[in-house]
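Example 3.2
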Amino acid sequence: HTPPPRPVVLDEDCLPHLSYRRDAQLARSWGVRALARLRHWRIQTFFSRLLPALRAVVTVSEEEAACVQRLCPSARVLVVPNGVDVDAVSPSPPGDSLLFVGLMSYPPNRDAIQYFIQEIYPLLADSMHGRDFLVAGRDPGPDLATLARQCRNVRLLGFVPDLGPLYRRTAVFV
């Protein structure tokens, strides 16, 4: 007698094949582009085979839910957005910094910070009156660390165990 299969639920906070597809689109060299396309195809194929066996899939956005549905129309998909207890972290006006919070090894976050530092922050610097741009998040990597060192008032904080004090001193969330 075989025991009944256990229900399996996938809690997917990031569909990795989408990151590889983006990497392929942004790659400058054909080798990096080819490797990213291969990774995209392999992970998408894996998900396509995995999804029908799952009881449910939990995503953090409607966009990711739609992606799962395209891969497996019969999948039961639940959207549970990322959230913050706003009462616990409400800023104390007027705030003295800009803040970004996110995993820095995640390519879209790294791209966003690089773009912000290179293209947006210089436009704001004169009106910032010495306010810091704080980036809280694990694994920024050497390229982002080098870029941040070249910019006045840009600080990579790495992993921050308690974000409450940062949230309270922030004027603008990036």
